[in-house]
Amino acid sequence: MTDTATALVSILGSWLTGGALLWLARTWISERLKQSIANEYAHTLERHKADLAAANAIDLERVKASYAHERAVRSLGEDSFREAMRVGHAKRVEAIQVIWDAIIKVGEGAPPVLTHIDVLSETALSTILTSSGGRANLDVVNGKSHPREGLG
């Protein structure tokens, strides 16, 4: 080989070796950068996950406490309502008893005809009051006459 060929082979070999070294250096640096960025993103993601989990835990505890408070308030309200209804029911029963006793007293002192008139319709009552036999029967029921007197 001649000196020129040797020089060309030597230059070409140096360029190829330099190019290969440059390519390897560039690839190595690129991979290192990618891994560094991926590592940084992974740490940031883990930190955000931890922050989010902590915030969720705090919110969950807050919701649980609020639910427990609302349940306690509702329970107190239900107990209060139940007690008021119990007292109100007892008072209602007493009032009904007083009214019923008054109805019984009025019924004991009223003439018997009122009991019969109470169950008659208006047309039946007017028929009884306008007929002579009906009037006589009412007098018998009221105790104003004897049953035989009305038949005359």
Keywords for this structure?
89% helix, mainly alpha, 152 residues
Molecular structure report:
It is a single chain. The protein is mainly α and 152 residues long. The protein has a domain at 110-146. It contains four helices and no strands. The protein has helices spanning 3-109, 112-119, 122-130, 132-142. Helix 3 (122-130) crosses helix 4. The chain is rod-shaped and about 170 Å long. The mean pLDDT is 84.
Stretches with pLDDT under 50, minimum 5 residues: none
Estimate percent helicity: over 70%
**Strand residues, percent:** under 5%
Termini distance? 173 Å
Global mean pLDDT: 84
What Rg, in angstroms, do the CA atoms define?
55 Å
Q: How would you spell out the order of helices and strands? A: HHHH
What does the main sheet amount to?
none
**Based on CA inertia axes, which overall geometry fits?**
rod-shaped
Please give the number of β-strands.
0
Number of helices: 4
Quickly give the structural class. Answer: mainly alpha
Give a nutshell description of this structure.
This protein is mainly alpha-helical and 152 residues long. It is built from 4 helices and no strands. It is rod-shaped.
